[in-house]
Design a protein that fits this description.
Homohexameric ring arranged as a trimer of dimers. This is Ribonuclease PH. Its EC number is 2.7.7.56. The protein is 32% helix and 29% strand. It is α+β, with helices and mostly antiparallel strands. The protein has a single domain, classed as Ribosomal Protein S5, domain 2 (2-Layer Sandwich). β1 and β2 form a beta hairpin. α2 crosses α4 and α4 packs parallel to α6. 42% of the residues are buried.
């Protein structure tokens, strides 16, 4: 029995509310159970120096957790004078995941920065950030296309992510914090809407896993991502 009472292959409740901020070109608030993330996409008519003059665009991301997004207050990273290793790793993951669904030539020489701010955390914040980040990115690109600044849609597919793991000896979908903290195996699966894999992160957190178990987790991930892609499409329709 899962702590939440969910079936092994059951997602947490997912909702995506769009247009939640006034100034960003694209924004949404994604809720996956008790994990809530504010995602905004900001357009800039410039690119990093390493691709300047190439005609290609760039999509990057930043990630952060609010001080009271968890059960006890955490110190703002700005107070420490630098970002922690976890933050840097997650925002790089979000950026490269979203870029996997972008035709950078079609985007043109401009940059879109996706900011993911965790308001409330209960496991799976990086997955919620990627899933909500794509919605914010989609809305920002829609504005570019409506203005005629982009002719061909640069978004070739949706991008979504879900966690799966071995909890109490059973493969389960969409880990919340009580499961994530005790899972024997933990994995994050990032896929495009067309089913193509972008990245899989799996590790033994307390017990090793078999190839068969990895395959069962992959099956769960495909199911979960298909549900998330449906929610993304409904949100931007």
């Amino acid at each position: 029995m899962r702590p939440s009472g969910r079936d092994l292959s059951e997602m947490r409740a997912v909702s995506i509310e769009t247009g939640v901020t006034k100034h960003a070109e694209g924004s949404c608030l994604i809720r996956m159970g008790d994990t809530h993330v504010l995602c905004t996409a900001s357009l800039e008519e410039r690119v990093p120096p390493f691709i300047k003059g190439s005609g290609q665009g760039w999509v990057t991301a930043e990630y952060g957790m609010l001080p009271r997004s968890t059960s006890s207050r955490m110190r703002r990273e700005a107070q420490a004078g630098k970002q922690g290793g976890r933050t840097v790793e997650i925002q790089r993951l979000i950026g490269r995941a979203l870029r996997a669904g972008v035709d950078r030539n079609a985007l043109g020489e401009r940059q879109i920065t996706v900011d993911c701010d965790v308001i409330q955390a209960d496991g799976g914040t990086r997955c919620a950030s990627i899933t909500g980040g794509w919605v914010a990115l989609r809305l920002a690109v829609n504005k570019l296309m409506k203005a005629g600044d982009v002719i061909t849609d640069p978004l070739v597919s949706e991008v979504a992510a879900i966690s799966c793991g071995i909890y109490a000896g059973q493969p389960v979908l969409d880990l919340d914090y009580p499961e994530d903290s005790e899972a024997g195996t933990d994995g994050n699966f990032i896929l495009r809407g067309d089913g193509r894999l972008i990245e899989v992160q799996m590790s033994a957190e307390g017990s090793t896993f078999s190839r068969d178990e990895m395959g069962r987790l992959m099956d769960l991930a495909e199911k979960g991502v298909s549900e998330l892609v449906a929610a993304q499409r409904a949100a931007v329709a």
